Amino acid sequence: MATNLLELDNLNAFYADSHVLHDVSLALAPGKVLALLGRNGAGKSTCISAIAGFVPPRSGRVLLAGIDLARSTPEQISRAGIGLVPQGRRIFGSLSVRENLLVASRKHTPAGRRCWTCDDVHAMFPRLRERQHQLAASLSGGEQQMLAIGRALMTNPSVLLMDEPSEGLAPQIVREVGDVLEQLKSQIAILLVEQNLGLAMKVADDVVLLNTGRVVFAGSNADFRQQQAQLQSHLGIT
Ligand SMILES: Nc1ncnc2c1ncn2[C@@H]1O[C@H](COP(=O)(O)OP(=O)(O)O)[C@@H](O)[C@H]1O
Ligand SMILES: [Mg+2]
Fold first, then answer.
1. Which of ligand 1's atoms lies nearest the C-alpha of 213?
2. Which domains does the chain have, with CATH numbers?
3. What DSSP letter does each residue of 102-162 carry, written as one string?
4. pLDDT, one tens digit for every residue, the chain (238 residues)
5. Ligand 1 pocket: which residues have CB below 6 Å?
């Protein structure tokens, strides 16, 4: 019986001959937030891309509820229940806010996973309801981030991968992103890549720290705080 929803087991990933992820293992339990930290270039986004199937791992396993997805396509991985909020948001600027949500929506989702509608997303992000007929390109940075999260929720995920959701946002909006993460974590397990250490430590149950593609710390939020002084050199953030 798998107690972890998502598990990486000795994952190795490459860009051509460049070996970027070295035996990365981590575990995410239901209802938890796992912060994936590390300085620029540490391999955080590559790890997210490897899980989502965009950088297929050369070896190792990506287990979702015990099933290995390491050789599945991004589409299969998304359907299996892994939602992605990519770094830089990557919303479709020339589509309306509503169309951005609808392109991601799923007709069929296995029992046990919440089915999200546009109304559900609007309840979480009221500004998206107000702006649903506007082009997504006309949204503010914060609104675009809300849309990127909403679009990922429309795929009815059991695990959400979020790559630097606070990047480039004003402090007030970063707090709003934090509130949204708190709301979501009761329903969805979240793997959160963050450069904003304050936000990460506010919401994370556990922490994995990468340095040059290797795990240099894995433990609870409290353990991380206790060892933070020694780990600071791997963070590259304050
Ligand atoms: N598409 C790519 N092709 C080749 N190398 C890449 C590519 N994307 C990232 N890298 C390299 O892989 C390493 C990890 O990058 P990345 O996963 O983006 O780090 P992070 O998200 O932690 O900043 C870096 O050395 C980076 O230069
Ligand atoms: Mg990155």
1. 14
2. 12-81+158-175+193-238 (3.40.50.300), 92-157 (no CATH)
3. HHH--S---TTSPPP-HHHHHHH-HHHHHTTTSBGGGS-HHHHHHHHHHHHHTT--SEEEE
4. 458 899 999 999 999 999 999 999 999 999 999 999 999 999 999 999 999 999 999 999 999 999 999 999 999 999 999 999 999 889 999 999 999 999 999 888 888 888 999 999 999 999 999 999 999 999 999 999 999 999 999 999 999 999 999 998 989 999 989 999 999 988 899 999 998 999 999 999 999 999 999 999 999 999 999 999 899 888 875 5
5. 15, 18, 20, 38, 40-46
